[in-house]
Amino acid sequence: MGRLFIQSLPGPKIFICKCCKVHSASRDDVLSKEFQGRFGRAYLFRTVVNISLGPNEERHLMSGLHIVNDIYCSSCQQILGWRYEKAYEESEKYKEGKYILEKERMLKEG
Amino acid sequence: MGGAEYYEQESSPKRRKTLRIMEDTPVLLGSQGLIKRHEFVRIIIQCLNSLGYKKSASCLELESGISYKSSEFDMLESQILNGNCNHKAWVDIIDKIKDLKEETRASALFLIYKQYIFECLYNGDDSMALKILQDHISALSVGREKVHKLASGIISLKDIGVGKKDDSTFDELRRKLLSELEMLLPPPIAVPEKRLEHLVEMALTSQMDSCIYHNSSDNISLYEDHCCSSDQIPTKTVQILTHHNNEVWFVQFSNSGEYLASSSSDCTAIIWKVLEDGKMTLKHTLHSQKPVSFVAWSPNDTMLLTCGNGEVLKLWDVETGICKHTFGEQSPIVSSCAWFPDSEQLVCGSSHPENCIYMWDLDGKELKAWKGARIPKVLDLAVTPDGEHLISILSENDIRIVNLKTNDERVIKEKHAITSLSVSGDSKRLIVNLNSQEIHMWDIAGPLKQPWKYTGHKQGKYVIRSCFGGSNCQFIASGSENSQVCFCCLVFFLVLFCSFWYCFAFAALLSKVNSKFKLQRFFCRLHVYIWNQRSKEPIQVLSGHSMTVNCVSWNPKRPQMLASASDDQTIRIWGSSRSQKKV
User: Fold this and answer.
1) Which chain A positions have a beta carbon within 8 Å of B547's beta carbon?
2) Shortest CB distance from A2 goes to which of B377, B396, B463?
3) Predicted ipTM of the assembly
4) B209 belongs to a structural domain
5) pTM score, two decimals?
6) How far is A18 from A103, CA to CA, in rounded Å?
């Protein structure tokens, strides 16, 4: 489908997609390591690359009601995590616009 | 003008008397009362004179009572041209003019004194000439350079020997002095030359500037306000080319506009010929081992380079379709390449086996190679058609512009990832497509402050390319991607099919939703977007492709022909609705 635009990240320490090995996020962008995803541990990132967004969904997470978009690796379409679109509680507002990547779907490089 | 009486321009008893005679003729003209009658008539007289209609010009002066030459200038002219040597009188006239800027006064006096000096020299009166130089000219505040040049001119004249001393030379020189003074003195003493033509062209330029579809250099008439309709730009599909067997990733017209090259993931590149009537026929199919994502025409259009996406750089001959050369001993994978204007050298960027920029000549000899750890990954490359700048897109959203003559380097940092680069035909501007669904246009030579931004198209996952186009590179066209809304409309249609007897209700709902969200547009049509450089929003959207439009190219010699390449395996040629009628 067209020529996929794959970004590559600088810096030695990056996370890559387990299936297709494209770069997903840089370790410098980790905001927190204390999150829980569908498959276990998950990290909160400031920014990620090479992903496509799914539609908005309302979901009840452990931290409350949120609007999230699932994120998929743009080259292999694996679901990697989600993005916080909107948080209903004040204490959760800091997550808006940030990304969760599941540790189980990632590999560390560097 | 002979001995006809002339009237003064400034308000005076004589003028007021004349005005009372012509009482019913208004002083201010124009629908907004902005035009002063006597100024208007004066520039008309100037225009008639410059067109060669001297009789009409003097007729007009008599009839209107307005004289072209101001009283001061008239006095100056009669004094200068009457052949006497009363230079002091000339200086007096200049001194008497009120409201003259010091600079202008000094320059005018300088010219007069210069003439005085030369006439003294011609008459053999050297001491007088020197005296003027010392007393008057040095007192004027003109630049030292001018004075030195004059002094050296005097000396050289003495050396040559002022032999030819006759009246015709005097006359010539004096006329020259008069015309120089006319250009120097400000209005209302003298009118700037070709004033009426200048005003008319200003109005025409402003009309052309506000015309968003303007696409040709003819078509301007003085009889009507200029405004082009959208039949100046491509709006309809003229031809669909289906020869490729897989996604078409790249199209580009040759520099002469006679050929079109396209490349596809079916591992071929095709050269098409543009026929007289605008239709395309297949000329050659060039076969490669791997999908080709980039082609580059040589500036003389005799050769084509193909590369990209896992394929090495190959050189093809356009006439025969034979591969003349494959570059690089280690067969590096080249992502994009560019020619230098002499069609003898080329530059390309590679990222396998290592990040590198190569410069080769046509025989495959490596002229330069930039390798090493510090070389970043080059995503796209271009050389401006005038050969002055080499522009490259480096991996961290950087646009690097190198001036090839001075080796000056400038880097523009974008906030979002850049997917492609394109340079305008006049070498002045470049555009980049960004991941954030914007196209940014930057001036290559000028100060790099803020880019012009264009939005309206969709881009997210794929490499989408754009290009400049139009008779003067005033348009920008870009491809675009699928949008997410597609899913919703599919669901609607599924439900529609399943519950047929609810169709009326659903049809009503669907048409309501359709008009609200313009779903029809998203459902089966992908677009090519066209912007005018001055408009942030698209001025035209071309629909027809059914999948992502990867690349567009505007024919440089036919400003109404556009080609687009899409994942639906077709290339569409677009033309204006005018060209449709012809065919």
Assistant:
1) 1
2) B463
3) 0.76
4) no
5) 0.72
6) 10
Cβ within 8 Å, pair A8-B567: no
Residues B188 and B260 occupy one common structural domain: no
Residues B186 and B238 in one domain: no
For residue B534, CA distances in Å to A58, A68, B475 come to 41, 38, 9
Interface test with chain B among A3, A69, A73, by most B beta carbons within 10 Å: A3
Q: Do A3 and B550 count as a contact with CB atoms less than 8 A apart?
A: yes
A71 vs chain B: nearest CA distance in angstroms?
13
- Tell me, yes or no, whether B271 and B360 share the same domain: yes
Backbone angles phi, psi at B146, to 5 degrees: -60, -45
Name which of B212, B208, B229 is nearest B531 in CA terms: B212
Q: Which residues of A touch B434 (CB under 8 A)?
A: none
Q: How far is B488 from chain A (nearest CA, A)?
A: 10
Q: Indicate yes or no: CB of A5 within 8 angstroms of CB of B462.
A: yes
Residue of A1, A3, A7 lying closest to B309 (CB–CB): A3
Q: Are residues B289 and B140 in the same domain?
A: no
Q: Which of B212-226, B286-300, B482-496, B502-516 has the highest mean pLDDT?
A: B286-300
In the A/B pair of chains, how many CB contacts fall below 8 A?
44
The residues with which B317 forms a beta bridge, in sequence order, are: B303
Please report the pLDDT score of residue B17 as a whole number.
45
Clarify whether residues B424 and B364 are in a common domain: yes
Q: Are residues B364 and B477 in the same domain?
A: yes
Using an 8 Å Cβ cutoff, are B267 and B289 in contact? yes
Picking from A3, A8, A55, the nearest residue to B463 by CB comes out as A3
Between B466 and B369, the higher pLDDT residue? B466
Chain B residues closer than 8 Å to A55 by CB? 484, 487
- Nearest Cα of chain A lies from the Cα of B557 at a distance, in angstroms, of 28
Phi, psi of B319 (to 5 degrees): -65, -45
Test A74 with B550 for CB contact under 8 angstroms: no
Domain ranges of chain A: 30-109
**Which chain A residue lies closest to B550 (C-alpha atoms)?**
A2
Q: B539-558 pLDDT, tens per residue?
A: 888 888 888 899 999 999 88
Q: Are residues B239 and B352 in the same domain?
A: yes
Domain range A30-109, CATH architecture: Beta Complex (2.170)
> Of B580, B550, B582, which is closest to residue B566 (Cα–Cα)?
B550
Task: Report d(CA B455, CA A75) in Å as an integer.
Answer: 25
Tell me: the pLDDT tens digits for A48-103?
888 888 888 998 888 888 899 999 988 888 899 999 998 888 888 888 989 999 98
In a shared domain, residues B311 and B460:
yes
Looking at the domain assignment, is residue B134 inside a domain? yes
Residue B317: which domain range?
A: 234-482+520-575
User: Above pLDDT 70, what percent of chain B?
Assistant: 82
Whether B26 is covered by a domain: the verdict is no
How many independent structural domains does chain B possess? 2
Q: Which two tokens stand for residue B519?
A: 């779903």
For residue B550, the distance in angstroms to the closest alpha carbon of chain A comes to 6
* B452 part of a folded domain: yes
The end-to-end CA distance of chain B, in Å, is 60
Instruction: Give me the amino acid identity at B88.
Output: K
Write the burial class of residue B310 (CB in 10 Å: 0-12 exposed, 13-18 middle, 19+ buried).
Answer: middle
Q: pLDDT tens for residues B135-157?
A: 777 777 677 777 777 778 777 76
Contact by Cβ (8 Å): B32, B181 = no
